[in-house]
Amino acid sequence: MTQHLADRTHPSGEPSGTAGGGRPDWWRHAVIYQVYPRSFADGNGDGMGDLPGIRARLPYLAELGVDAVWLSPFYASPQADAGYDVADYRAIDPMFGDLHDADALIRDAHDLGLRIIVDLVPNHSSDQHEWFQRALRQGPGTPLRDRYHFRPGKGEHGELPPNDWESIFGGSAWTRVANPDGSPGEWYLHLFAPQQPDFNWNNQAVRDEFRSLLRFWLDMGVDGFRIDVAHGMVKAEGLPDMGSTGQLRLLGAQVLPFFDQDGVHEIYRSWRRILDEYPGQRIGVAEAWTPTADRTALYVRPDELHQAFNFHYLNTPWDADALRRVIDGSLDSMRPVGAPSTWVLSNHDVVRHLTRLGGGLARARAATLLMLALPGSAYIYQGEELGLPEVTDLPDEVRQDPAFFRRGTGDDAADGQEGLRDGCRVPIPWTAEGASFGFGDNGSWLPQPPGWGKLSVAEQTGDPSSTLALYRAALAARRAHPALGAGDSVTWLPAPAGVLAFRREGADGSWVICAVNTTDTPVAVADLLPRTGQLLLASTHFAGGDVLPADTTVWWRD
Length: 558
Ligand code: NOJ
What we know:
The protein is an alpha/beta fold. Helices cover 23% and strands 15% of the residues. The strands form 5 sheets. Strands 11-10-9-5-2-1-13-12 form an 8-stranded parallel sheet. Strands 14-15-16-20-18 form a 5-stranded antiparallel sheet. Strands 6-8-7 form a 3-stranded antiparallel sheet, with no helix packed on it. Strand 9, helix 6 (264-277) and strand 10 form a beta-alpha-beta unit. Helix 5 (204-219) runs parallel beside helix 6 and helix 11 runs parallel beside helix 14. The longest helix has 16 residues, at 204-219. The radius of gyration is 24 Å and the shape is globular. Mean pLDDT is 93; it is low at 1-9, 12-21 and 410-414. Residues 81, 84, 121, 192, 228-229, 287, 348-349 line the site of 1-deoxynojirimycin. The site of 1-deoxynojirimycin has 9 residues, from loops.
C-alpha cells in the first residue's frame, strides 16, 4: 500500500516548542495509553484482539481523555514472543487484520484527536524473517549471516557457545544451527528467545533497512515509535563474557556488555533527523533499561529521542522516601537535557500495579493520582483504569509467555508472578455479562476470572466512585489545569513521615498541591493543608478535614 504524506491529517493544532506562552510540545505533557492488541477488543470473534476491535473502541479512549495510543506489535509474526518476534515489519499479522485496517485505525484516531505510536522492534527479528532464513541457507561467511551475530562455537568441535551471555528469558543466549549440508554449524545470538535472533547493527544493510521502515510507518501517518530494547542494539566490541550475574530480569538495571553501549546513540541521532523531516512532531520513545536515570537521559538529548520510559520509577516500592528520591532523581537527570520525565506504573511485562504495590485498589488509585500529578508525560496500561488486578492463578497449560517456559528453577526461579507476564495480559472486560465480558463474541485467548464482569467498562460507567471515573476526572483535570502536565520540577512541602506533599505552579501563577499518604493508617496533616484553595480530586473518599486517610492521594487547587 502506498501512502502519501500530503493527505494525512494530524491532531496537532499546537504550536511547536515551549516559547511564546502557548501549550508546550504535545509529548511534553501527553498521557499515553498502551493498547496490547491481543487483549483489548476482538472484532471478529476469534478470541484474539485485533485492529478492527481497537478501532471500534477508539471513542472510549478519546472519552477517557488520553492524548495518544501506543500499540504493542501487530506485525506479521509467528508469535513466539507475542509479536516481539517480527517476520515482516511492513505487514500486519493476519490475526490482527491488514494494512487497510491499520490505515483506517490511524485515520479514525486522528479524527478523534488521538495520536498513534507504534512499536518498533530493532534489536532482533523473528527466526522466520526472510533475512534469517536466507542466512541459514547460505551458510557461514555469507553477507546475510553478517546481518545477525553468527559465531563459531568454542571447544574442540565448536560444541560450546561463543561466550557466557545469558538470555533474558533464561538459558544461554546462543543457539547452534546446522550447516546447509546438515553438519553442526555456527551459533547465533539471541538475547531473548531462540526465535528472536539479534541483528548486527554494525551491518550497513540493517541500518538502512530500519531507516526505510521508519519512513514506511511515518508515511502511513503514525505519530511516533516506541523502540523496543532501545539499549540493546550495539554490543561491546569482541562480545566479551558478562561474568556471573544471576538470572537477568526484564527491565533490569545491571551493567552488561550487551546493553546501554555508547554506540546506540549514533543510531538515534540518525533516526531523529528522519522524524524531524515529517510534520506534526513525530516522536521516538526509548524502552531503555539502564543502570541510572543519568544514563537514561542520554537517549533523550535534544538530537536523539523525545522520551524514555522511567523504569526506575516503575521499580520503586510504595515508600515515601524511596518515591521522593526517584522523583527527584528523574527530574534532576532530565532537566539538563531538556527532555520531559515520564512516569509509568504498569505495562505488558510487569505485574499490574494494583497487585505489585501490595495495597489493593486503594493503594493503586493513590499511586495513579501521584503519577498523574508529576511533571511530564505519563503512561497508562490498558485495564488499569478499571482497577484490574494481576491474574495470579492462570493454569500452566494456558500460559504463552516464553519467559514462563524458559525460566530456571531453584534460586534463580521467579518468585510468585514476578517475571511471568500472562497475568497482566488477560483480555479486558467491557460488559458485565457475555462469553468474554464484551471482549469479543466468543471466548478469549487467555481465560478471564469469573469476577471480571464486575470490573467492566459498562459496570463502572456512570458510577462516580469507580476507578474509571477517577481516571477520567484526573485526565480532565490535567488538561484543564495549567499547573499540571508539562514541567521539570516540584516544590516539596514539609510533611509527616510516610507522607509526600508537593506544590506545582502554572505559568499563570495558579497552583496545585498533591499530598500522598503512603502509610496504612490515617495521618493528621493540618499544617500541610492549603489555607486557601479547594479540593480538586481524591483517590479515596475524602471530603476535607485535616486527616489524610491511609493509602490516599489528594489534589488541591487554587
Ligand atoms: C521488551 C518487550 O516489552 C517485551 O514484551 C519483549 O519480550 C522484549 N522486549 C523482547 O522484544
